[in-house]
Amino acid sequence: MLLENRVCVVTGGASARGIGRAVAGIFAEHGAKIAILDLDGPGAIAGAAEMPRGEGHKGFACDV
Questions:
Q1: Side by side, which strands form the sheet with 58-61?
Q2: Calpha distance 46→13 (Å, rounded)
Q3: How far apart are CA 1 and CA 47, in angstroms?
Q4: Rounded CA separation 2/26 (Å)
Q5: What DSSP string describes 32-51?
Q6: Is the pTM higher than 0.85?
């Protein structure tokens, strides 16, 4: 895995059809644990829960 044992922080990943969510998904497919930061806290948490390759992904309400 290219990103195994890495943590990737993605801002703006709450939107199900957005670029941030797509990037987070690709990083997760390559083995990374994902932290999604977004103004939409519930959306960020939902996005993290939908990431591929298991558990350990987190979503946070955050104004970057």
A1: 7-11, 33-38, 58-61
A2: 10
A3: 22
A4: 11
A5: -EEEEEES-HHHHHHHHHT-
A6: yes
